[in-house]
Amino acid sequence: MAGPGVDPHYNGYAAFLTSHSSYKAGVYSARGIWAATFGTGTAARIPNTYEWTYQTFTSSLANPPAGWCLSGAASSACARFFSGVTSSSKYALMWQWSGGGGSSNGYGDFDQIDASRTP
């Protein structure tokens, strides 16, 4: 369920969805886009909503993910979640680690899902 302060339309949608079905609300975004849209204060926080992020990503397929970071890469090459969710949160669900966002790897998008966190 979304936290207080975020757009009331989103909160209404999330509340309706979770109370009328077995589905859970989730958001696909990245830290920079989220901050540009919702800001960085308490109004931008939805810490109890599943997230799918696409930053930090790479065009290389040489170092696939190990956890929420690219294997063999600097620690800065890790998934960066948004809206108050960190990689240790059960709401950090998916990461598009290669392709998309203008980063061509020659194949398409590659996503990582933590199945143990799947609602």
What does the model show?
The protein is an alpha/beta fold and 119 residues long. The chain has one domain. Helix content is 18%, strand content 19%. The chain is built from two helices and six strands. The protein has helices spanning 8-20, 31-38, and strands at 26-29, 50-53, 65-66, 69-70, 92-98, 110-113. A four-stranded mixed β-sheet has the order 1-2-5-6. Strands 3-4 form a two-stranded antiparallel ribbon. The radius of gyration is 15 Å and the shape is globular.
- Biggest sheet, spatial arrangement of strands: 1-2-5-6
Helical stretch tally? 2
- Give me the count of strands: 6
* Major β-sheet profile: 4 strands, mixed
Average pLDDT number: 85
| Poorly predicted parts | none
Domain module count: 1
Which descriptors would you attach to this protein?
119 residues, alpha/beta, four-stranded mixed beta sheet, two-stranded antiparallel sheet, 6 strands
Describe, in short, the structure shown:
With 119 residues, the chain is an alpha/beta fold. It has 2 helices and 6 strands; from the N terminus they run αβαβββββ. Helices cover 18% and strands 19% of the residues.
Topology:
Blueprint (H helix, E strand, L loop, with lengths): L7 H13 L5 E4 L1 H8 L11 E4 L11 E2 L2 E2 L21 E7 L11 E4 L6
Parallel strand pairs: 1-2, 2-5
Antiparallel strand pairs: 3-4, 5-6
